[in-house]
Structures are given as structure tokens and as C-alpha cells.
Amino acid sequence: MITPPFAPEILAEFPELSALGRTATRLHPRRGTPGVGDSHAGGPLAWPTGEPWPVCTRELRDGRRHASPNPLVPLAQLWASDVPDLPRTGPGGEEFDLLQVLWCPVEHLRETRGPAVQVVRRCAADLPPDLLTDPPQGDVERAGWVPTPCVLHPERITDHPCADALPAAVRDRMPPGVAAGFVAPGWKVGGYPRRAGVIPCPRCATPAELLLVVAECEYDAASYHWIPLEEQDLDWSAPHGDAYERPTGLRLDGDLHIFTCPGCAAVHVV
Question: Torsion over CA of 106, 61, 70 and 51, rounded to 10 degrees?
Fold first, then answer.
């Protein structure tokens, strides 16, 4: 898929934006039937048969715990060969080319936003021939936290900061609302978050790094100009538009930014 080019008249009027550009990979999830060898959202993971499936034992929002360890739900699988901006080195210096993200679709006491997330990094060369075909199923508190399976159509773009993150000297020269759609919406790896400020690790206070943006919508009223060229003539009105505007079916009350800490390797959601 191809994103329309960033407005050249904006870059001409505000040349400082060029220096702030940062690469990102828009993932463009669209409903489909992904396999274990695909990059996807909500599909099957390339998970070794002999490796225990991850579970959640965290305390729930009401103080209870799961009756038994709760199997996590696959959120995304990203192969480095498909996603140019996927980091190739983990916080401990280990190299990987496959990222798997899972979460527990239940509200937890210590999660400020969304489900409890777990990240798994792998090397494709280390995967055994026998992969799990029937992962265990667990409790689901919110159906809107279980993604509809989607194939991805990754596209590398240049991302820019949100309005509040722009230098004051640039922001103050812009007419109201101009910078609202600078940061790429939707699912993406790399680039900028749709919020300003440094995000410290809640465990060690090291500035965290944005790993993945999980979005409820691929576009909104402020970012309709990010609709891919191939889909601009489609019927985006409800209910048909849900397959394009909300392909994963997630209901998140806004974007979820998954950050990792380069210091202690903690993963947290903002």
C-alpha cells in the first residue's frame, strides 16, 4: 500500500520539519487469513511445540487473580524481512529477526492502559520444524481486546512529531490545526508516538523506546489524508468502512503505545 506524499507546501513553508523526519513502517492491517509464516495481527504464531505457551498470573483490577494461569492472546507477529523499522537487537544485545507480541485481554491492577503485554524475540533460524497448531484458550474479559486476524501490508514512510512535540518556534508559526495530522496514524513500528514527551521506564526511569503502536483506527477525522492511495475511492462509511477503518476490530479507547526499556528490558503500555 502507498501513503500519499507529505504535503510539499508544508515542508516548503516549514523546512525545519525535514530535520525532524523519522522513518516508520506503517503496517496497514487488513482482514484476511494469515499463517504462521506471515507477519500479521491476531493470527497464529510460529511457536515451537515444545515451548510452554505464555500465561498471565498478574493481579486483576478488582484485586482478584485468575482462577488458573491465563493463556495469552496473540496480538502481532512481525518478521524483520517484512518490517524495515523493526529493531534487530534486543535490550540485552541479542539479535533477532522475529517479534511476537501477546497480551492478556483482562484488566489488571498495575496496567495503566490496556492489557498486560508480553514480547518474545526470536531468530528464525532457531525455530524447530514442529510448530504449535492449537494454542490454549483463556479468559477474555473484553472481546474488543481480541484482534480480528489481519494480514499486513507494510510500507516504509517518513513520520513527523505530533503538534505538542514540535519545537515551540515551529509550532507557534503554524495556523491552528495544521500540525494535527503530522504523525502517522494506525498500526506502525518506529516513528513517533501520538503524544509528546519522553516516556520513562516505570521500573528504572530510563527513557523508553517506542516498539509498536497498536491502533483502534487506521485513520480519523484529523488524519484522513493518510488513507492509502489504493483505498481512497472505497466506501469508508459504516458498516462497510469498518473493514478498512477498524480492520482489527479492537476497541481500545485510543492508541496503545508499546514501549521497551533499553536498560532493564521492561515492556509497558502507554
Answer: 90
Q: Over the Cα atoms of the chain, what is R_g? A: 19
Distances, alpha carbon 241 to alpha carbons 57, 131, 262, in Å: 37, 35, 39
User: CA 23 to CA 155: how far, in whole Å?
Assistant: 10
Cell of 94: 541479542
Q: Report yes or no: 208 and 201 within 8 Å, Cβ to Cβ.
A: yes
Q: Which element (helix H / strand E) includes 265?
A: none
> 3-class DSSP state for residue 210?
strand
Instruction: Enter the pTM of the model.
Output: 0.90
Half-sphere exposure of 118 (CA within 13 A, CB side): 16
Q: Which of 268, 119, 158, 165 is nearest to 207 (CA)?
A: 268
Q: Tell me, what's the pLDDT at 238?
A: 61
The three cell numbers locating residue 174: 503554524
- The pLDDT > 90 percentage for the chain reads 40
Using one digit for the tens of pLDDT, what is the confidence trace for 6-44?
A: 778 888 888 888 888 899 999 999 999 999 999 999 999
Please state the rounded mean pLDDT for residues 152-176.
86
Q: Which of 119, 122, 107 is nearest to 267 (CA)?
A: 119
Q: Which helix (H) or strand (E) holds 56?
A: strand 55-56
Is residue 30 a contact partner of residue 243, using CB atoms and an 8 Å limit? Answer: yes
